[in-house]
Design brief:
The protein is 21% helix and 28% strand. The chain is built from 7 helices and 14 strands. The structure holds zinc ion (3 copies).
Length: 258
């Protein structure tokens, strides 16, 4: 089945440029140094899956001329990954059905707390409110979304368990700094791998550039793309020159056919 991945956002939680920052990355004229909050849009056959719906979701859909989402998958409940959920409204209205949101019980609990009006009963719902359908996933067991097989990839974000997702030969991990051996086994055979790499300096809950490169080598995918990048990483052009073959920085708007 054909698979197309659109990197809708590749920046860390503050995005790049950071408000008020005058560093070389935040003032760079290179469009690849502008990064909205991390998310990815995966089209498998004719099914559109959105992995994470950050605060830049609306602009990301417009910038990439996307107008359909069949289901949302959430990696975890940090706001840079779900604060854009209200902007699913036009899609819910056009598609005339509640939007399925896949996540673990812990993640869905936060979605319900943040967007209680999206789960209101028909009598209580405000007419312009979005309608969400929470679909709980186990986090350890493969599941299907609109007929697409998805393998959850348990990883650690600090000491907090979050998920990546594998669909066919494409594996996506954002917001991690540790990958258990059992998850390496699930990654085996991935041809395209996405990993987070925040910056060069250590961080308590994200891979550094060197750590991400080590993981990429260990997995051995045909190509690895790095995402969730901070302005501290440095200029896209300079960092790109230092990377080993088969590893590159993702950028907003990058499209990969898997
Ligand atoms: Zn994040
Ligand atoms: Zn900056
Ligand atoms: Zn996070």
């Amino acid at each position: 089945m054909s698979c197309k991945v659109i990197f809708t956002g590749t920046g860390t939680s503050q995005g790049i440029p950071v408000i008020g920052c005058k560093c070389p990355v935040c003032t760079s004229q290179n469009p690849r140094d502008r990064r909205t909050r991390t998310s990815v849009h995966v089209i498998v056959g004719d099914i559109h899956l959105q992995v994470d719906v950050g605060p830049d979701f609306r602009q990301q859909m417009l910038a990439n001329q996307l107008d359909r989402v069949d289901a949302v998958l959430l990696t975890h409940e940090h706001m840079d990954h779900l604060a854009g959920i209200d902007d699913l409204r036009p899609l819910i209205f056009n598609q005339k059905r509640p939007m399925p949101i896949y996540g673990t019980s812990r993640v869905l609990k936060v979605v319900r707390q943040q967007f209680p009006y999206a789960f209101a009963s028909e009598e209580d719902r405000y007419p312009g409110a979005p309608e969400l359908k929470a679909v709980e996933i186990d986090g350890q067991k493969p599941f299907k979304v609109e007929g697409v097989s998805v393998i959850p990839l348990p990883v650690l974000h600090g000491n907090w368990p979050v998920l990546g997702f594998r669909m066919g030969n494409f594996s996506y991990i954002t917001d991690a700094n540790q990958i258990p051996n059992s998850t390496y086994a699930l990654l085996r055979g991935s041809e395209y791998l996405v990993l987070n790499a925040l910056r060069k300096e250590p961080h308590y809950s994200h891979f550094t550039l060197d750590e991400a490169i080590d993981v990429a080598k260990k997995v051995g995918a045909r190509h690895t793309f790095l995402t969730h990048i901070s302005h501290d990483m440095g200029l896209e052009e300079e960092v790109s020159r230092m990377l080993p073959a088969g590893i590159s920085l993702a950028y907003d708007g990058l499209v990969v056919e898997c």
